[in-house]
């Protein structure tokens, strides 16, 4: 749509500025004594408004001749031809208007005087039309910039959504790989425990798939899934695996990313409990401080094991998901001290919609 015609305020400002420019330029023949004040104003003001509306058509000329996208020769020819056509039509309309005025008493000499200023009249038309072309090129620049910004923003949003979906898609295969390995190990040594683990795994997957496509879920459901996973692993580890959760009651309805705790629980079991003959206690703490939800997972670990050179798959996955959703306001801190491994995540509280 035309950037001026679709907005009444833009059109009013455009006509006002155009009228002022036409009035100022129309005074030049007065100073050269080719026209009087009344003749100049009666001639230029109405014709100036006509040229203003004619010049709005330069928008379409500009759109088919964008700067930098066509050759300079073609661009120059297009603009010169359009200027000649518009100014030629304007002179014809001006001649007709002069003949109409000449019918009034006392204005019979106006056609002769108009003939003397036709070159000047043409020059004014070319100048004003050139300004209109420049204005419309400016409008086109802003329109293209806005469109490019919108496309970039849309592309960025789609890329972020695609990456989040890809990150979520990595969770289940990783978890299934570990769980099926455990079931396979129990098949020969403890078939009953293997069957029990299969049932628990089926229940876990049924509940997790129910909301895996959601952007966020209540914290209570995420904690319930964590407990179901630990119940699956307890079949394998028995009394070696113990679990304790301390959570503030007011935080159970707060939103959390689906399966965000799953990699942390897996990490606590696979790199903590499974490495110790006596097993140990996995402790989960949920606190609300300074407008943030803070979740800490702590588990025993072999104090003699070497610290990994970089974060494992699970912690990297959690960190990336937090960063994608909450940006710099989220944090993940992992510490290994005196035989205890602790991971704490924090992110701004978002009150769930009621």
Would you kindly provide a written description of the structure presented here, covering whatever features stand out?
This protein is 62% helix and 13% strand. The chain contains 11 helices and 7 strands. The strands form 2 sheets. Strands 2-4-5-7-6 form a 5-stranded mixed β-sheet. Strands 1-3 form a two-stranded antiparallel sheet. Helix 3 packs across helix 5, helix 7 runs antiparallel to helix 8 and helix 9 runs parallel beside helix 10. The longest helix has 72 residues. The two termini are 41 Å apart.
Number of helices: 11
Strand order of the largest sheet: 2-4-5-7-6
Q: Give the overall form.
A: rod-shaped
Strand-residue proportion:
5-15%
Span between termini: 41 Å
CATH class of the largest domain: Alpha Beta
Q: Which second-level CATH architecture of the largest domain applies? A: 2-Layer Sandwich
Structural domain tally: 2
Assign a percent range to the helix content. 55-70%
Give unreliable regions as ranges: none
Structural class: alpha+beta
CATH topology term of the largest domain: Heat Shock Protein 90
Q: Mind telling me the C-alpha Rg?
A: 39 Å
* Oligomeric state as shown: single chain
Total DSSP E strands: 7
Largest sheet: 5 strands, mixed
Mean pLDDT: 82
CATH superfamily of the largest domain: Histidine kinase-like ATPase, C-terminal domain
SSE sequence, one letter per element? HHHHHHHHEHEEHEEHEE
């Amino acid at each position: 749509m035309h950037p001026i015609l679709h907005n009444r305020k833009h059109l009013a400002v455009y006509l006002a500025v155009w009228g002022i420019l036409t009035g100022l330029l129309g005074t030049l023949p007065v100073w050269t004594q080719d026209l009087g004040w009344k003749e100049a104003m009666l001639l230029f003001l109405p014709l100036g408004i006509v040229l203003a509306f004619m010049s709005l058509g330069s928008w379409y000329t500009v759109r088919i001749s964008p700067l930098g996208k066509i050759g300079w020769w073609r661009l120059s020819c297009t603009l010169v031809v359009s200027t000649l056509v518009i100014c030629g039509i304007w002179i014809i309309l001006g001649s007709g208007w002069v003949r109409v005025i000449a019918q009034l008493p006392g204005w019979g000499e106006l056609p002769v005087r108009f003939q003397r200023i036709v070159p000047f009249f043409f020059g004014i038309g070319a100048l004003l039309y050139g300004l209109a072309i420049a204005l419309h090129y400016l409008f086109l620049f802003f329109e293209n910039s806005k469109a490019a910004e919108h496309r970039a923003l849309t592309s960025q949003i789609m890329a972020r959504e695609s990456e989040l979906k890809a990150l979520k898609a990595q969770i289940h295969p990783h978890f299934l790989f570990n769980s099926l390995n455990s079931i396979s190990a129990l098949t020969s040594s403890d078939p009953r425990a293997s069957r029990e683990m299969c049932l628990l795994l089926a229940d876990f997957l049924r509940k997790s798939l129910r909301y895996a496509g959601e952007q966020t879920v209540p914290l209570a459901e995420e904690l319930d899934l964590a407990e179901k996973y630990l119940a699956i692993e307890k079949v394998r580890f028995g009394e070696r695996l113990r679990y304790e959760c301390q959570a503030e009651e007011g935080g159970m309805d707060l939103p959390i990313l689906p399966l965000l705790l799953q990699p942390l629980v897996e990490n606590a079991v696979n790199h903590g409990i499974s490495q110790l003959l006596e097993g140990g206690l996995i402790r989960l703490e949920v606190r609300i401080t300074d407008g943030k939800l803070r979740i800490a997972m702590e588990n025993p670990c072999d104090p003699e094991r070497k610290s990994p050179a970089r974060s494992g798959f699970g912690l990297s996955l959690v960190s990336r998901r937090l960063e994608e959703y909450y940006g710099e306001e989220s944090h993940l801190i992992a510490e290994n001290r005196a035989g205890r491994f602790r991971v704490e995540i924090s992110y701004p509280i978002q009150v769930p919609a009621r």
